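Example for tutorial group B:
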């Protein structure tokens, strides 16, 4: 329904799995395309900041390794998470 945000997941699990990650210093100079489990992507100035759900296969470290870049991860508060999820 319009205006409703439905998340059926324990809050602790949500808080532990959603991260905002800044990827920068891409060795080949080009930014990757689609990102798995990504809610939002902001690209610019040769870097990108993404809000994504991490899991055993998708971690900021594995993505940075795959893309030959550096990463900086920030945990989000529940309020930040709901703001990010509601942007979809």
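The residue assignment follows.
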């Amino acid at each position: 329904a319009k205006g409703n945000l439905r998340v059926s997941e324990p809050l602790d699990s949500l808080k532990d799995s959603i991260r905002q990650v800044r990827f920068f210093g891409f060795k080949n100079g080009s930014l990757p395309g689609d990102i798995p489990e990504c809610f939002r992507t902001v690209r610019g100035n040769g870097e990108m900041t993404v809000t994504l759900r991490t899991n055993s296969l998708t971690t900021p470290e594995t993505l940075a390794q795959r893309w030959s870049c550096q990463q900086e991860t920030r945990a989000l508060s529940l309020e930040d998470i709901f703001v990010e999820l509601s942007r979809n």
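The first helix runs from residue 11 to 17. Compare this with the pattern of hydrophobic and polar residues in the output above.
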